[in-house]
Specification:
Elements: E1 2-6, H1 10-21, E2 25-29, H2 33-40, H3 51-60, E3 64-67, H4 70-74, E4 79-82, H5 98-108, E5 115-119, H6 127-138, E6 144-148, H7 158-163, E7 168-171, H8 175-184, H9 186-189, E8 195-198, H10 200-231, H11 235-243, H12 264-277, H13 283-306, E9 315-319, H14 334-344, E10 348-352, H15 357-361, E11 367-369, E12 382-385, H16 397-403, E13 408-411, H17 418-423, E14 427-429
Parallel strand pairs: 1-2, 1-4, 2-3, 4-5, 5-6, 7-8, 9-10, 9-12, 10-11, 12-13, 13-14
Helix pairs in contact: 1-3, 5-6, 10-12, 10-13, 12-13, 13-14
Length: 436
């Protein structure tokens, strides 16, 4: 079987590499010639555990290739996946579908024979209809079907999510397209992965509903954390107590500085706008968007409190910048708001992240960039943990204390135990638990 993946960004690259691992012949198409050259030489431009090895293995095996030539990539493909970006549109928050529709127009001029055209990008309800219209205008007699096949990949564990997913959602009512998609996902049928066939518009909405529900869980536990601080409860225990209820579950109940990344911020906003446009507003998600934005500023104020009410002439060590560990993704990371507030307030900020430094340097100004964890803390008045990378989970507290001018820690990921930190001589601030 042969497929073309239009877009070699995060979703397209991971999906294409994993399909090739299944034995499918995959060509990934991208307009960025530099990226294509790197990938053809087994150099992956993003950080995702296990991805490098899979790309190198399958490029060498001849199952995975990369090109800037869309016509050559699409030629003789059984299925063509659209996996381009859908960022928030400036000004109104709607998903910007420019790249999706551009890809559809290019595909329309190249398909030959029956082709399944699959939307892998996250798109609003009805996008598949518009793609079909675009292609039908160029190929009135063309033989094709448009399918929605949303991705549910978590950055940092995307390979496992693709190979062992909770479910695969395929939106089409065409028997012929279903047969093609069943063949493509046959390895997952063999491990009894639930494959859900739905109407196309339903599949498009499933993706948004899933992401906004998870964003809601995060926002809910963050507000519960605020309440815990006021009434003297422990949010970790509250999360455990409610998470043991099978109807709720324990995932996405970790209090912190708010959600970020490439999906939740734009998908919550896009669903809000879609719902408003059809006069069916989703007030819960509107509140989630507002509360999450406010959350980042609240966390900057928590650090301000630890600094005694002023950032002026304070040296602050920042550990972690990416929106979550095991990724180099800085998109909508809480650190962008928090660190900017520290710098704007007059603090001298020394920062380190195991994978996100290169991207962070293009997005943050006025920061001293360090090569390691302990380098950030030399003479620091406060150290704050923004991302829960493993290497920050077992710091040598004696060394940290000796390096700092004052042993003050603001742990926005609740990595450490408050009683143990106080016993170690730290002034310790956390989220939704006992603070110093």
């Amino acid at each position: 079987m042969r497929i073309a993946m239009i877009g070699a960004g995060y979703v397209g690259l991971v999906s294409g590499a994993c399909f090739s691992e299944f034995g499918v012949d995959v060509v990934c198409v991208d307009k960025d010639a530099k990226k294509v050259d790197l990938l053809n030489n087994h150099q992956v431009p993003i950080y995702e555990p296990e991805l490098n090895a899979i790309v190198e293995k399958n490029v060498k095996a001849g199952r995975l290739s990369f090109t800037t030539d869309l016509a050559a990539g699409v030629k003789n493909a059984d299925a063509v996946f659209i996996a381009v970006g859908t960022p928030s549109r400036r000004g109104d928050g709607h998903a910007d579908l420019t790249y999706v529709y551009d890809a559809a127009r290019e595909i329309a001029s190249t398909i030959n024979g029956y082709t399944v055209i699959v939307t892998k990008s996250t798109v609003p309800v009805g996008t598949g209809d518009e793609i079909e219209s675009i292609i039908r205008q160029s190929c009135p007699d063309g033989s094709f079907d448009i399918v929605s096949n949303p991705e549910f990949l978590r950055e940092g564990s995307a390979i496992n999510d693709f190979m062992r997913p909770d479910r695969v959602v395929i939106g089409t009512t065409s028997d012929k397209a279903q047969d093609v998609m069943r063949t493509l996902y046959r390895p997952l049928f063999l491990i009894d992965t639930p494959i859900l066939f739905t109407a196309r518009r339903t599949a498009e909405l499933i993706k948004y509903a899933a992401n906004t529900f998870l964003a809601t869980k995060i926002t809910f536990i963050n507000e519960i954390a605020d309440l815990c601080e006021e009434v003297g409860a422990d949010v970790q225990d509250v999360a455990k107590g409610i998470g043991l209820d099978g109807r709720i579950g324990n995932k996405f109940l970790h209090a912190g500085p708010g959600y970020g990344g490439s999906c939740f911020p734009k998908d919550t906003l896009a669903l809000v706008r879609t719902a408003q446009d059809v006069n069916s507003p989703i007030k819960i998600i509107e509140a989630v968007v507002a509360v999450n934005e406010k959350r980042k500023h609240q966390m900057a104020n928590k650090i301000l409190h630890a600094c005694g009410g002023s950032f002026e002439e304070k040296k602050i060590a920042v550990l972690g910048l990416t929106f979550k560990p095991n990724t180099d993704d800085m998109r909508d990371s809480p650190s962008l708001i928090i660190v900017s507030a520290l710098v704007k307030g007059g603090a001298e900020v020394f920062a380190y992240d195991p994978q996100g430094m290169d991207e962070a340097k293009t997005m943050l100004e006025g920061v001293h960039w360090c090569d390691g964890t302990y380098e950030t803390m030399e003479g620091a008045d406060v150290v704050t943990i923004l991302t829960e990378w493993n290497e920050f989970r077992a710091l040598d507290l004696k060394r940290v204390k000796n390096l700092m001018s004052k042993p003050v820690m603001v742990d926005l990921r609740n990595i450490y135990n408050p009683d143990e930190m106080i016993e170690a001589g730290f002034e310790y601030y956390c989220v939704g638990r006992k603070n110093f």
